[in-house]
Amino acid sequence: MKKALIIQEDIVLLNILERLMTLNSYDCRAVRTIADLDIEDQSLNYDLIISEILFEGIAPLDFVFQIQEIITHKEFIILSNMGQPKVRREIMESNKVKGFFSVPFDLDHIQKLIL
């Protein structure tokens, strides 16, 4: 079974994404912040991480690089309220992010990426 990690402060969005992943046969771990992760979470090899990038105390680009360094994963999708084109462009240029979607987003687009 594929493994997914969701990091999303918005509890409604967190629950929707967790349900989407479960319905698509992922073993899913859903947390509200990176601080909610433990050592075991960091040692797992996730197939997919879906995350917000706006968290207090850390710049969005720094957050992306931090996730890429501390959590082993194959693909990374960002769902964010962040609307700054420059930040989006810099993140997508890293070639380690499979998709960047602004909230509100179309769940069908996310589902196509996770299958």
TrEMBL record:
Family matches, as InterPro entries: CheY-like_superfamily, Sig_transdc_resp-reg_receiver
Biological processes per GO annotation: phosphorelay signal transduction system
Domain of life: Bacteria
Ranges for domain Response regulatory: 3-115
Protein name: Response regulator
